[in-house]
Amino acid sequence: MRYDSTMVDRQVGRNAELFAQSVAELDSREDRYPYLRILISLIDQAHPEWRQAPKKVERIADLAHELSGGQLDTEEVEQVVRVRDKEKGYR
């Protein structure tokens, strides 16, 4: 299988990139929410060094935005990351 573009992030991988693009095509925030949680988990697993980074939320949101080809809203992704971190007890 050939792709016209190079991968945005080799640690996350092509499947996560394709997944992010598919998530961006969903119509509403409610529809995207569970899939954004999965995408954020994939990014978090690929970049464990970001877990304690001061700008972790922004980094994850920026990468999700990049993976989606600029289609995902960074503010929406940041909100989902914050909710997930709050549920896990992170600050």
What does this entry look like structurally?
- By secondary structure, the protein is an all-alpha fold.
- It has one domain.
- The chain has helices spanning 14-24, 29-46, 56-67, 74-88.
- Helix 1 (14-24) packs antiparallel against helix 2 and helix 3 packs across helix 4.
Brief digest:
This is DUF4290 domain-containing protein. The protein has 91 residues and is an all-alpha fold.
Descriptive key words:
91 residues, mainly alpha, 0% strand
Helix content: 55-70%
Low-confidence stretches: none
Order of helices and strands: HHHH
- Whole-number tally of structural domains: 1
- Which whole number gives the mean pLDDT? 91
The proportion of strand residues reads under 5%
Helix/sheet category: mainly alpha
Give the overall shape, derived from the CA principal axes.
globular
What is the terminal-to-terminal distance? 42 Å
Rounded to an integer, what's the Rg over CA atoms?
13 Å
Extended strand count: 0
The biggest sheet amounts to: none
List the total number of helices.
4
